[in-house]
Amino acid sequence: MLRISDPKKSIPFYTDIMGMTLIDTMDFPQWNFKLFFLTTLPEGEQYTLTPGTQEAHDYMWSIEGTALELTFNYGTDSESFKGYHTGNQERDGFGHVAFNTDDVYAACEKLEAAGVTFKKKPDEGRMKGLAFAYDPDGYWVEIVKRGEPNKIKNYFNFSQTMLRIKDPSKSIPFYEALGMKLIRGKNYGDFSNYFLASASNVDESVGDYSSLSDDEAKAKLSMMFGPVLELTHNHGTENDEDFKHYNGNEEGRQGFGHIGFLVDDVYAACDRIREMGYGFKKEPDSGSMKGLAFAYDPDGYSVEIIKRGGIDFGDKKVSSE
Known about the structure:
By secondary structure, this protein is α+β, with helices and mostly antiparallel strands. It contains 6 helices and 16 strands. It has an 8-stranded mixed sheet, sandwiched between helices.
């Protein structure tokens, strides 16, 4: 989840420019915020449901893939709002989202023609051939080359969310316990990247990804249609008892909010998570929304746990007629 200041700018960016589909909305006028859920559908697949309806809710909360959640707090689209904290400053945890494409250079030309600005163009900096664009709020959007052209028909597909972690020996087992699989780990000397995928995005024919060479794992990763969770470990942070990343929900540093998982039984899932000892921001039966929870991961990031199929969230629904 990312907080956005103006959906009239952010939704067209992610749909018209990055090729995502708005599959659902949830409006909470009683609490002055609205949620938008977007995903990359396979090229040519038509989405006929109306966002905000019960039918769209049913689709959203049963999705096999991954959605990007954007949160709009009423009033932040005014000129007086100073903007969200988009990450990538000292000790920030959230880094970026990413999209894969066949040709990074052509894609960046297309983005620039659409008025998109860049943190890094493909031939700038040390790492050639990848880019970082800015979304309307200034969040970094990495543009990554696929391993093989013409295999995925979509021009772009949502491919990553990146978080920085303190200690991979704690974070990786935590996310594996939530059903994710480590696809690739790469040591770059002073930092390492770890890429984890949910079951719906895993190639079952591979079996044990750890048996692959790094080149093979990189190739598999680049051709995944659905997004992965990228965990970045800057070496040495695990040895500093006082080190802690900002999680995106601190006062004055709000931008990134949380990641989420659908489960069959929220209460049973929370019992298993509780055993890992990292605690909860919200237990399933606390607060105004019963039946969903926010756990903490080892770095203090919020992890939403939601019942597959959804619950009665108390939102103002759109009529399907």
